[in-house]
């Protein structure tokens, strides 16, 4: 009998880094919360009301970080304390642990003999492949950056050692699969995150001349590159988002750049439907935003490395294109791509972008992920079904 039958629900425990908003990682977690509504959830901190009801209405267990003053605003500065917070968790008896991790949740201790599946968004980017963007000398100064690197050497050792607590790694992209192999020496299975193609959909509204960025304001997102390029070309750019780099980015912006701050999904969707194209200048682990834009029929101009190479079909490929890649993090490179895009404005098919996005929809994600977890929970049943 299928173990997901309501009468014999497996005892599952969930872990997630932190709950402070509904971003891509929380949308992946939400699917498991709906599937296993009584599963307890362990997280470093929880800003109540910040995530969906499917996540909020279960038992949520936080760490000692929850008790610190102003933790919801300052948790990013407490990276050195996060390993201790995870080590202090004591999970209940269960049959499966599933962690959702881009920081420390993958280090949770599963009960002895219990499989632990980590749905890995990336190995901790702050201490591995993007530490220079966050904590390099240009941002901290030479002395502070050197001190940070000594700390990160310790954290990298801990991060690599605790990868052994995971029995099965699932990567969100081939890009992350490669990072897991490089950082942890572990194999993984790729299951792409879900895109809400029911909500993000095209409309009959006419496209306008502005370019669009939808992003958190983090250093590695490279919003500065999009701003500098639109400044040079005098192209209208609308930026939706917020974050730690807001002051620096606003100071860079010229008269054609407009900041809207954080906006609800309905406003984001409206801009996807009206923009000339989405600009996606950072190197991402996967990147749901380009697929949400394509689901609304918008083309995407993306940096040609990382997750976007798995989601955006570039001009010149054998398939019908859904965007362009630019190859270097330089204004000249992105500017050349914008001008090449504009020289073929009548040749972009919104239906092709929509078809590409549909390949990553919710139903595909749930079928793949729950099928994978079912193999781990019930290997005998899975083998019998395959034999039949």
Count of individual domains: 2
Structural class by sheet pairing and helices: alpha/beta
Give a short account of the largest sheet.
7 strands, parallel
For the largest sheet, list the strands in their spatial order: 3-2-1-4-5-6-7
Name some characteristics of this structure.
388 residues, 2 domains, disordered N terminus, globular, seven-stranded parallel beta sheet, Rossmann fold, six-stranded parallel beta sheet, alpha/beta
Explained architecture:
Helix 9 packs across helix 14, helix 12 packs across helix 15 and helix 16 packs across helix 17. The relative contact order is 0.11. The longest helix has 21 residues. The protein contains 17 helices and 13 strands. The N terminus and C terminus are likely disordered. The strands form two sheets. Strands 3-2-1-4-5-6-7 form a seven-stranded parallel β-sheet. A six-stranded parallel β-sheet has the order 10-9-8-11-12-13, sandwiched between helices. The chain folds into two domains: 216 residues, 3-Layer(aba) Sandwich (Rossmann fold), CATH 3.40.50; 148 residues, Rossmann fold. The chain is α/β, with parallel strands linked by helices and 388 residues long.
